[in-house]
Amino acid sequence: MSMIFAKPSMRTRVSFETGFSLLGGHAIYLGPDDIQMGKREETRDAARVLCRYNDIIMARVFGHQDILDLAKFATVPVINGLTDYNHPCQIMADALTIIEHVGRLEGTKVVYVGDGNNIVHSWLLMASVIPFHFVCACPKGFEPDKETVEKARKAGISKIEITNDPKEVVQGADVVYSDVWASMGQKEEAAYRKQAFQGFQVDEFLMKLAGPKAYFMHCLPAERGVEVTEGVIEAPYSIVFPQAENRMHAQNAIMLHALGL
Ligand code: CP
Ligand code: NVA
After folding, report:
1. Could you report the predicted ipTM of this complex, rounded to two decimals?
2. CB neighbour list of residue 140: distance below 8 Å, 6 or more residues apart
3. Which ligand sits closest to the CA of 90?
């Protein structure tokens, strides 16, 4: 498997590399300086070359079009390891984690608090196929992509709510979910976003409002004291480490499926 990384990673890289090795495969890490997709090499050329050496391509890229182009031009399965638009492997691992801790994903209430980003888009796509109650509480102007929200609503499978007040919607949550306020590629906006996201930190008060059955989840890496408090991420109801572990198990299943095994 070739693993193309245009952005940094710990979990995605190590879980794919270790997981594929456990399955009997060999993964090759290609960092931001190796291919320089779109600069040193066109994406469509990289796709057509790598698939002649490898049985799978996994890629973490900036623009979502890059993953679509890799999939279009490669003759082997291409796995999305995160784009600016979505992060499907993360949400597959998250679903597995919720099944393990709550017992099922169907019928649960997942309240995401923060930026309407790639994680939210993958939750919305998950809500288009599995019935649960998905709520995204984000500041005004940081809502998820309208078309993706529409698609999830039109699917008519799940209850979808987009709101600007986490306190109003958090009660009864099975999971309160958080992610960084400035994603990879937005780090120069971090200071401005910190201002705009005041009131969207997941703290002990919000978890109390959520109620006693609520777990805390975060895709990691986390900025303690910014989108989540130290107390919440270290609390017994925080399941961020089993969640991180499940990246590997979920992806192993995805790879076996992609290879038809
Ligand atoms: N959650 C996640 O994708 O982590 P990395 O950025 O470390 O891969
Ligand atoms: N939204 C974050 C997720 C990191 C796993 C980012 O894109 O940086």
Report:
1. 0.99
2. 164
3. 1
